[in-house]
Amino acid sequence: MNARIRFPAWSRLPAWLLVAALALPLPAAARAPQPAWIPTWTASPQPRWDGDFALPTQLPYHFWNQTVRQVARVSLGGRRVRVLLSNQYGDKPLKIGAARIALAGEGGAIVPGSDRALTFGGRAAATVPPGAPLLSDPVELEVPALARVAVSLYLPEPTPPSTFHWDARQTAYVGAGDQTAAPRLRADSTLTARVFLGAIQVEAAPGARAVVAFGDSITDGNMATLDADARWPDALAGRLAARNVAVLNAGISGARVLRDKMGENALARFERDVLAQPGVAAVVVLMGINDIAWRGTPLEPDAPPVAAEDLIAGYRQLIARARARGVRIVGATLTPFEGALDATPMRGYFDAGKERVRRQVNAWIRDGGEFDAVLDFDAIVRDPAHPARFLPAYDSGDHLHPGDAGYRAMAQAIDPRVLLGED
């Protein structure tokens, strides 16, 4: 059987003409970098823990025919926005009756004219399967950099808050019925936790990047002033917005590198909370003090001690995984904690043996040469006359967490060029 092979007409053109055609410049529209979707705010999800744990969740048993309005300050702005909801730890579908986004006003109010309905695949209502996220359709809304937005969720059915973020440092408002479009939500109660809200994304200017702050309560901002956006990642976001860099807070109060309880351990959640974030360029790791100090307290009375070598092995795993994905990884030294929580039922959080482990870990972070860069937060906030303690001006009063001034000092000490690996 004879078969005739047909070549496309362009292949019969003279070679010089083909080369000339390939060398022609692309149209300007094809060359111009395009806007990209990037997270501008995140809150790492946690599973609700049992009532026998030392710290209460302060959550209701469930929401039912209620609206929850949650406020978040973004880092980068954009002209279009969308919201990521999370049913990460739910064991049944999460029903969303309605959802809206707006620029936030004072209290439970929104800015007039900024309210937009959120849809999911074109539908106003949605169901989020157990263990799944749900990304809304984009909406047109001019969101300035460092603006506050309000996300309102109507939960029509009995809905246990199985996926939440414990230490929001921001008031959320809860009211009866569908009040998602209300100019001011009529609140029956308030929360200082987040529920089901995982991220806010914007269509940012071309070249936008993200830095993730991956840590525990000192990144989550425990003891920072409520509703004031006074955490160190907030202050860093204010510095980096002009560089077209988003700052994402992936801190969880009580987080640990090696063990679960107030959220999954760092090795388990690193993919979801850091590496899977669109546009991530760098991550700052500030975590480990809870691994060292929980032992012998009501948080974990019978746990075995954690050695410096155990934490270092965990850090090495994070370093290897970040490098494999082309993400710059910056290590931050563990801050002082002598006297921590002595005036609370958590007495025993500090002792001399735990302090030795902290110093061993910090020596490795500073001098080990394994992180791409180091942020010496310990040196920034410690008292030079008593290095195991916070400088009084930076101490929140519990001797474990910075106050607002300490968080600002941490952010101001960061060189953006070192953070991003720029010359």
From TrEMBL:
SUPFAM superfamilies named in the record: SGNH hydrolase
Signal sequence, renumbered to the chain: 1-30
Keyword Signal: yes
Alphabetized UniProt keyword annotations: Signal
Lineage: superkingdom: Bacteria
Pfam families, A to Z: Lipase_GDSL_2 (PF13472)
Molecular function in Gene Ontology: hydrolase activity, acting on ester bonds
Domain SGNH hydrolase-type esterase: residue ranges: 213-409
InterPro entries associated with the record: GDSL_Rv0518-like, SGNH_hydro, SGNH_hydro_sf
Listed PANTHER family: GDSL-LIKE LIPASE/ACYLHYDROLASE, PUTATIVE (AFU_ORTHOLOGUE AFUA_2G00820)-RELATED (PTHR43784), GDSL-LIKE LIPASE_ACYLHYDROLASE, PUTATIVE (AFU_ORTHOLOGUE AFUA_2G00820)-RELATED (PTHR43784:SF2)
Protein name, UniProt field: Lysophospholipase L1-like esterase
Native species: Vulcaniibacterium tengchongense
